Amino acid sequence: MAYLEYEYFRKVWQYKLINYMISKRPEKKQEYLKLFKTKSDGFYINAKSRMKSARGAARYIGRYLARPAIAEYRIISYDGEKVTFWYKSHETNEKVVEVLEAERFIGKLLMHIPPKYFKMVRAYGIYAGSIRVKVKRCFGLLKYIKSGYKAIECTLEEYWKKEPKKLTYRELMIRNFSKDPFRCKKCGEIMELWEIWQRKYGYIYELGKC
């Protein structure tokens, strides 16, 4: 959080969470309100680290979205009732070993699984779908003006109405990762999809039969 005060967010998170808890369990309101006194600095949040670059931030977010809440190698043992695992404390930066009942351990993991249809990634700014048309018009106008009004072989109105070409899987892989998934790594020739077989449904695709 490079531009937002860490201490402020601790107290905001505390306020929001306690009020949410009260809305769910109003009979415990007085007990929950005491947390404002016992935790006068607010609730802990892991927000002190600062990203040094946009690439590093994107890599961190990508790992968070694609990986589970805890890596398998951090689970030390399971005896049928309790799970022993370790983690690195954000406050002390030291390794902490903890033992939990299996059900409680699973419960902590389930907290990180989003509800069905929940969007983990949303687009903002010029990437937002709501302003896609406006952005396209701006870029089209700039391209049109910089080229001396010759870059677009149609009127601006016709250009704006055109739908952008949808890239194929192969084109997306080449553009984003500079790798052609259809090119053989050994001989360098372009491969052709011959068939797709699935254990439950059998042959889903066969060349010449679709």
Write a concise synopsis of the structure shown:
The protein is an alpha+beta fold and 210 residues long.
Keyword list:
alpha+beta; two-stranded antiparallel ribbon; three-stranded antiparallel β-sheet; 210 residues
Query: Percentage of helical residues?
Result: 25-40%
Extract low-pLDDT stretches: none
Count of DSSP H/I helices:
8
* Class of secondary structure makeup: alpha+beta
Report the end-to-end length measured between terminal Cα atoms: 53 Å
What gyration radius follows from the Cα positions, in whole Å? 27 Å
Count of DSSP strands: 5
Beta fraction: 5-15%
Structure characterization notes:
- By secondary structure, this protein is an alpha+beta fold.
- Among the domains are: 1-50, no CATH class; 70-120, no CATH class.
- It is built from 8 helices and 5 strands; from the N terminus they run ααααβββααααββ.
- It has helices at residues 6-24, 29-33, 35-38, 54-66, 102-110, 132-146, 156-161, 169-177; strands spanning 75-78, 82-88, 95-101, 195-198, 202-206.
- The strands form 2 sheets. Strands 1-2-3 form a 3-stranded antiparallel sheet.
- The radius of gyration is 27 Å and the shape is extended.
- The two termini are 53 Å apart.
- The mean pLDDT is 80.
